[in-house]
Design a protein that fits this description.
Blueprint lengths: L4 E6 L2 H4 L3 H7 L11 H18 L2 E4 L17 E4 L2 E4 L10 H11 L4 E4 L11 E5 L2 E6 L5 H11 L5 E6 L12 H4 E5 L2 E4 L6 H9 L3 E4 L2 H5 L6 E4 L2 E5 L3 H9 L3 E5 L12 H4 L1 E5 L1
The structure holds arginine.
């Protein structure tokens, strides 16, 4: 979604990464590219947060919890917001599954409505659920989100959507690597999307074009630096990880305002861009 963001939930690296010692012990288990530097992560996060705070009225922080690990930094994944409230998900990455319970407690404490919760064998990550517009939900079916979850989510949002469109995700680098639908598409305005077409099914690309989207095509080297993961703060106002000059320039050429933050430690090493760091609770 691309409408003006009014309220978000995030998690500070102080509460997710905890300390350098903790990072040293855990980064391999969580399949990070390398060990993040804690002090640099804190600095990067301040930069990231400053941009968020400049544009979003309410910013709320998930608490530190012993039940969850490094990936809890990526506050987008354990829940998905619909206009009526949150769906509590269950991650396709087993290590991340406890994040949902902590989130649920947090939402209940804040009296934020919950519309449903995945049950049984269903698994899904927030990164696989993309609102194309108010009434259209795309769901990526890959290693992180299964058919059972898609069925349950369809039932939960039936009264709020016209269409749920399932997008088959490719195997690409395999089960252990994080590939979400949000890795290959970001909607930054009603007619502007950032895409990595090489991993996109043809029907999706054709559908976007047919619906009038202009596509910003991310080159391979910038896809690897999470250039395709762009957070819309408002229509055509967005945020990218620095080091993606080609994508950034194309966004500017399309009339967008682009903010950048350095995200080597908080984004690149854990494979989580600005959309993954931010859970959008409410947009206009
Ligand atoms: N919405 C996202 N794309 N989140 C990225 C999460 C990255 C995290 N390391 C994981 O593997 O789950």
């Amino acid at each position: 979604m691309y409408k003006k963001l009014n309220r978000v939930i995030v998690k500070h690296p102080n509460d997710a990464f905890i300390s350098q010692e903790h990072l040293s012990k855990e980064w391999k288990r969580f399949n990070y590219i390398n060990e993040p530097d804690f002090a640099k992560a804190q600095q990067e996060y301040e930069q990231f947060l400053a941009i968020i705070k400049e544009h979003v009225g309410y910013v709320e922080f998930l608490p530190e919890s012993e039940r969850v690990g490094l990936d809890s930094l990526y506050a987008h994944d354990p829940v998905k917001f619909t206009p009526k409230g949150a769906i509590i998900l269950k991650s396709g990455k087993t290590l991340r599954q406890p994040e949902a319970e902590v989130y649920k407690d947090f939402l209940q404490e804040k009296e934020i409505p919950i519309v449903g919760e995945l049950t049984g064998q269903a698994v899904a990550d927030g990164g696989d659920l993309v609102w194309l517009d108010d009434r259209t939900l795309l769901i990526g079916r890959g290693y992180r989100t299964n058919d059972e979850a898609i069925q349950q989510i369809k039932e939960m949002v039936a009264d709020q959507v016209d269409e749920v469109i399932v997008v088959q995700l490719p195997h690409d680098q395999g089960e252990d690597e994080c590939l979400h639908l949000m890795s290959i598409i970001s909607i930054v305005d009603e007619d502007l999307a950032v895409v990595y077409s090489r991993l996109m099914p043809v029907f999706l690309r054709q559908m976007l074009i047919k619906r009038g989207f202009r596509l910003v095509e991310v080159p391979e080297d910038e896809y690897i630096r999470l250039g395709c993961n762009v957070l819309a703060l408002a229509p055509r106002v967005c945020m990218v990880v620095s080091g993606n000059p080609f994508t950034k320039q194309q966004l500017i050429d399309a009339g967008a305002t682009v903010y950048e933050y350095d995200g080597n430690e908080i984004s690149y090493l854990g494979t989580g861009g600005p959309t993954c760091l931010t859970c959008p609770v409410e947009r206009d």
